[in-house]
């Protein structure tokens, strides 16, 4: 039976509610698809919709929580990351599914979506409603902490799955919407700039598969261009005691962010590292550039 939107589910009577209605539409559409091999392409298309929904909605909701001073935003963020990882795992299962297992894969995703709606949207998200009622529009982050970050040129280097880079982009957008961000799967983008404007900050996954991170940072520090050499490097790691982090620290890494990172942690780190930087840009949100390196 299709799920029906009810006013008791309303959080803000605005963009968050519209997102939740959209999720209900995707769930109903998915549950209406027969669990047959012939429908696999359609199911993968719906998974694409879910991935886009998760990236956009979670970023919007996390920003919204800060604007109403919601005290549980960190826990909410971690729950979002859990859902993103579970969705990615199920997508991998669908991409490798055999005809005989499509019914089980379909049932697992349908169960995830129902739990997502009941446990997250109906139970957790409704906890924001009193803060919406009591608060007016506010800032995403404190202006005195992010004013020096406007227009910061950032290169995100991560050769993992696209959703990992997309998650990092969403976090950065919550911190400051005027960041000038480029994504790459390989550090060579920064090492082979010719005539371009180098990044001020490189967020680098310390466990790159295609190129050892310490090797990349060593080559960066020896680059003929002083602007490239001067780029600030912050490591992204699973553990801050990773031996690779210790080795790379000798190459002037300014900080290490342990995943999963939160917007608050990223904001605090960048505000400390770039204290005193002169902001650039006109306050507009630049486009995100992707690179195949």
Description of the molecule:
The chain has 293 residues and is an alpha/beta fold. The chain has 2 domains: 128 residues, Four Helix Bundle (Hemerythrin (Met), subunit A); 149 residues, Response regulator (Rossmann fold), CATH 3.40.50.2300. The protein has 12 helices and 6 strands. Strands 5-4-3-1-2-6 form a 6-stranded parallel β-sheet, with helices on both faces. Helix 7 links the parallel strand 1 and strand 2. Helix 2 packs parallel to helix 7. The longest helix has 28 residues. 28% of the residues are buried.
Which helices and strands appear, and what pairs or packs with what?
Elements: H1 15-31, H2 40-67, H3 73-95, H4 102-124, H5 129-134, H6 143-146, E1 153-157, H7 162-175, E2 180-184, H8 188-191, E3 201-205, H9 213-221, H10 226-229, E4 232-237, H11 243-249, E5 253-258, H12 263-273, E6 289-291
Parallel strand pairs: 1-2, 1-3, 2-6, 3-4, 4-5
Helix pairs in contact: 1-2, 1-4, 2-3, 2-7, 3-4, 7-12, 9-11
